[in-house]
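tool_log.txt
---
The assistant was asked to compare two proteins side by side. It first ran the structure predictor on the initial sequence, then on the second. Raw inputs and outputs are pasted verbatim so the downstream comparison step can read them without reformatting.
(1)
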Amino acid sequence: MVNRKINSGNKLSRLFDFDFSITKERIPNFLPFVLFISLLIILYIGNKYYSEKSYLEENRLRNELKELRAESLTTKAELVNKTKESEVAKIVEKIGLEEVKEPPKKIIVEKGEY
């Protein structure tokens, strides 16, 4: 039991007992760590730019959607107004057609007549 505590103490002390002195011989030992940290920094910056670009694109699309929705409502209101019977009668009157005043008549055809 005592050996385990000593071993774990050695591991812990080795973890925190890091020599920060940089010499010409130790530079190759630090190189993979520095490259790894550099890669993480580049990924972090790229992720930030991507998320900012996505956010701006989302806002642009949201504004465009609001504009299209308003345009859709305006167009629908105009269509409802133009398809009223009185409006259609005014438009048709310009080209020379008249509104029928009497109801349609039913034409009865006997079986052998046509």
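(2)
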Amino acid sequence: MKCETIQNNLIFYIDKELDNQVMLDIETHLKNCDECLAIYKKLNNVYGYKTEKLDVQEFYFSDLKKRMDKEKNHMFLESKNNVFLVKKLLVAAVLVIGLFIGVLMGNYYNNVEISQNPTEIENEVFDNDSYETAFLE
């Protein structure tokens, strides 16, 4: 094989994704070619971590997924509680505003009723001399 072909297939050789015959051809070439061997060593240093086995606990990914789902559900419930709290606060605010408006309207209508009392109106009219003089003229 040519060096160019070997160098193009080195990544696949490291990952062991080639046919057995091609793997043997590359291995033989690497024993005889220092340039390709140097490139192989550099690539293997960079990509060699893929060949190492990681020490992963059994059921790690399923446990992780369960924890993530639990956190997602917790966040959903928390947001639901926040919405419920906001609704409660809005209802309380509307009631307070309604109560305030009711008190203001009650005071206004109470003052209007007092000022429209017929005896007060008669007293105001008859006590006012300028009104009598204006009416008589």
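---
observation on (2): The chain has two domains: 3-51, 55-137. The mean pLDDT is 76.
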